[in-house]
Amino acid sequence: MGRYTDEPQTDGRLNVAIPNLEMEAYIMTVYMVERDLPGITLEQLGGAQKSAIETSEKFTSQGKQVRYIRSTYIPGESRVMCLFEASSPQLVDEVNKAANIPFTRVVEAMDLTP
Known about the structure:
By secondary structure, the chain is of the alpha+beta class. It has one domain (about 25-110): 2-Layer Sandwich (Alpha-Beta Plaits), CATH 3.30.70.3090. It has helices spanning about 40-60, 90-100; strands at about 5-10, 15, 30-35, 65-75, 80-85, 105-110. The strands form two sheets. A four-stranded antiparallel beta sheet has the order 4-5-3-6, covered by helices on one side. The protein has a two-stranded antiparallel ribbon with strand order 1-2. The longest helix is centred in the middle third of the chain and has 20 residues, at about 40-60. The protein is globular and about 35 Å long. It starts with a strand and ends in a 6-residue tail after the last strand.
């Protein structure tokens, strides 16, 4: 990546060349995935969560940075809100489609965990 030289500057520091990095690849945003899952059991919900985690890890191992954060289930409405961290909403969309978990939309969100 960077190239270091042995030639010190006049002030004793080393001369270092830093490569031009695509910073967008390192910027991660939180996205919320909304799901309507009428009739889902807790066992199925656990399976869906496991699939989201495993699929996110698989994508990351392939160089597509995405991380599952957590889910919140609203039993009275059969709704689930899942948080992911990724560089784009399209990547979160891809993960959920690959995991075969139904969802209604992916939106940018703010995780306010203290």
